[in-house]
Design goal:
With 433 residues, the chain is an alpha/beta fold. Helix content is 55%, strand content 8%. About 7% of the residues have low confidence. It comes from Acinetobacter ursingii.
């Protein structure tokens, strides 16, 4: 995922911070280490950077403004949230572009521009190194003087989205109603309050966009899939009886957009298709990922900025989902985007609620694995996973336990006994915990 040279640069950043006894590993440490990274240096030089001057100013700033550890404190420098976010964005952008390309130093440089309040970005801009020039260099190997000589960007012929017979909804989304009709989604069990609140927000005139926020594994995606299941089974509230839920495939939307304007064109085609269908509801899982998605095409325009107008005036109904951590660290910081959504907390279900969920899903797993589950085994799966599997949340971890118990029994082809008992559950929990 990360290139070897970038891994060396990251180790160098840590080593510099540790050597100077700095308490934190900052964006400035990262940029300083990238000044010895071939990929980053080539990109900076193509943009007309003075590497020596950059290094000098960075070293002075880091020395003067980074808190230091006490004499008897030998703990490792702690990466700041900005440091972590930059690496996450760089990895996501490279993965979204498709192919097997590794993350290079130049990719990290581009991702750095999302941290607008950092001194590192301020310094780059002061040296006339902007994000557009860097992304042009990464995309086409175009140097600064070549970019300045261009009067306009060439029109793109043969765009993948327009050349295909499939419409944007078919290319970039998954129709959850159709998935529910095919039996590929599980029925929604419980979560009446969350569904009621979600439906209530969707029926507003403006800012009709619920944001499902909860820990990983508590069932945020299941609420969107469950809403589609309720619709196709005639159990949805009357105003949503004819609604269609589309799940956005952000990877398909970004993949292959090599030139400036490709991403914006695809997203606008998708938004126009959704606006033409008054019953459409767009579901964006891990919605914090749209902040910065597509921005490598040039300028600071990304997916979140493109959908904001439609979210505000009610022409686009959108359900988003994210974790509490990402909501605080990424989503909430984009005030213009976050105020267009209405937060719906999705808390971890209780043990009794999770038992009801497993009882409701029981037949799905029995049909798939060709086994039978004792009711006591379902109760044990919930209680034992809640007690011993501490790094995950209900109902996800309990579902994982009964699923793996079914898989284990299925693999033992020589056994005629297809009943899953408490002993089977205990065995699986001991392996997972």
């Amino acid at each position: 995922m990360l290139s070897r040279q970038l891994e060396v640069s990251l180790r160098l950043a840590v080593s510099m911070a540790r050597q100077k006894r700095h308490e934190f590993l900052t964006v400035e440490h990262l940029l300083l280490a990238l000044l010895d990274n071939d990929s980053a240096v080539n990109a900076l030089k193509a943009c007309g950077a003075d590497i020596v001057s950059l290094r000098k100013e960075l070293e002075e700033y880091v020395e003067q403004h980074t808190p230091k550890l006490g004499e008897n404190n030998d703990q490792a420098p702690h990466p700041t949230e900005s440091f972590d976010r930059i690496l996450q964005r760089a990895i996501f952008h490279v993965q979204s572009s498709g192919g097997d390309r590794t993350v290079e130093g130049a990719d990290v440089l581009v991702a750095m521009y999302s941290e607008r309040d950092s001194f590192a970005v301020y310094l780059l801009k002061r040296h006339q190194i902007n994000r557009l020039t860097l992304t042009q260099y990464l995309s086409h190997g175009t140097r600064k003087e070549d970019i300045q000589a261009e009067e306009e960007v060439e029109d793109i012929e043969g765009d993948a989205a327009s050349s295909s017979n499939a419409g944007p909804l078919e290319q970039f989304t998954l129709n959850l109603n159709n998935e529910a009709l095919k039996g590929k989604t599980d029925p929604l069990i419980g979560r009446e309050k969350e569904i009621e609140r979600t439906a209530q927000i969707l029926c507003r005139r403006r800012k009709n966009n619920p944001l499902l926020v909860g820990d990983p594994g508590v069932g945020k995606t299941s609420i969107a899939e469950g809403l589609a299941w309720l619709i196709v089974n005639g159990k949805a509230p009357k105003p949503l009886a004819n609604a269609e839920v589309y799940s956005l495939d952000i990877g398909a939307l970004v993949a292959g957009t090599k030139y400036r304007g490709d991403f914006e064109k695809r997203l606008k085609q998708l938004l126009n298709a959704l606006k033409k269908n008054p019953n459409a509801i767009l579901f964006i899982d891990e919605i914090h990922m749209i902040i910065g998605a597509g921005s490598s095409m040039g300028s600071t325009m990304d997916a979140s900025n493109l959908i904001k107008p439609a979210l505000a005036n009610g022409t686009l109904r959108c359900i988003g989902s994210t974790t509490f951590q990402e909501y605080r660290q990424v989503f909430e910081k984009d005030h213009a985007l976050s105020r267009r959504f209405q937060k719906v907390d999705v808390n971890e279900p209780s043990i009794s609620e999770t038992i009801d969920i497993l009882r409701g899903l029981k037949t799905k797993f029995e049909d798939f694995h060709h086994v039978e589950y004792e009711d006591k085994a379902l109760v044990a799966a919930v209680e034992l996973s809640s007690k011993f599997i501490n790094d995950r949340f209900l109902p996800d971890k309990a579902i994982d336990v009964i699923d793996e118990a079914g898989a284990q029994r299925r693999l033992k082809a020589e056994s005629d006994d297809s009943l899953i008992t408490i002993e089977n559950i205990e065995d699986i929990v001991s392996k997972i915990a």
